[in-house]
């Protein structure tokens, strides 16, 4: 079974196809050339021989008419010339009068007999007939024996000369050519097979090198990058492979970093709770106020742990297929009003002005839970990372295809070198400040995933110390 599979794989391989192509390329033109040469030789030889015989026959026909051979067929000179023509071209000559009687047959077989054939009859009407019978290997010509009529200027046909010539010599030469062609063709075929095998091995060698290099990279014993520069195609494949490998490494590093960050973020509140609890246990007569303070701190750490876990669960849901979206047609204006109503106490506590501006009524197909979570994260971040006395402007607009949400604030801004990382999980621009206000570093990752699940897009523009703008674009009609 394994051998059969190997045979099947060989027939499907590029090497086999190259061998087949090169063999056909080497053999088929030889076959076509051989057939063409033999056929051309045959046509040319028959044409030349026909022209020579016809020329001699016309000369002899004029002599027959001028010597009145049809009435006096015992002319020694004419008979000698007829026999000579027959001998030179290995053929047969018959002279036929106007009553279809054969008055001369160089083979002496049908003399004084009557002959009626299509060619003879057509020659009686003044036509010269030439026919080549390849199967029986002979050329046949009929030449009218005619003379001009002085009174009318017309031509009078007195009889017909029929010439049949064997083409055995032409066929012998053709067979000789064919044999030589077969020998040359066999040599070319052997050479073509040999060269096809050698060339195919050389041509596919770079692909074997690529396969070996990939195996080495996979096992960790090869170079960090694939490099096979034999062909333009292999260079391009290597380039794409290295790009893919780079993305995979980034993804792997990202996963490892994510696991490390999750472990750290979950461990930090537990460590704090452990320290607080151990401190309480080590005190024999701790005052009730200290107990209350420590228990309050432990409660805050539990809330923080709960928030991290909830955000992680939200991310897991976001990572699932978009088929999990529960899409309904929502009034986006009312949805934003509800979100701002819930966030307004936080804004008042931070002394931040929160404003919603809607240019037109907007209804869209969205998952209410996920889109609410995304918009809430954006607006809540704008409030939390703002300055006292600052402002947050939320703008809603739409056209015939999309609705647009713009969240602009006068906050602390995002450094330029951090802009490309803000959607990474657990990434914080200012770690100490983020922990002070309870950030987990997952909000923007959740927001971005929710927007992408709705076939939307999100962009950020920020100037450090001046503020940040998030622009969100989402289709009005969701298409799965």
TrEMBL record:
Chain ranges of the Histidine kinase domain: 261-478
InterPro entries for this protein: BphY/WalK/GraS-like, HATPase_C_sf, HATPase_dom, His_kinase_dom, HisK_dim/P_dom, HisK_dim/P_sf, Sig_transdc_His_kin-like_C
PROSITE patterns: HIS_KIN (PS50109)
Catalytic activity field: ATP + protein L-histidine = ADP + protein N-phospho-L-histidine
Cell location: Membrane
Keyword Phosphoprotein tagged: yes
GO molecular function, one term: phosphorelay sensor kinase activity
Highest taxon above the source species: Bacteria
Keyword Methyltransferase: no
CDD domains to which the protein is assigned, alphabetical: HATPase, HisKA
Name assigned to this protein: histidine kinase
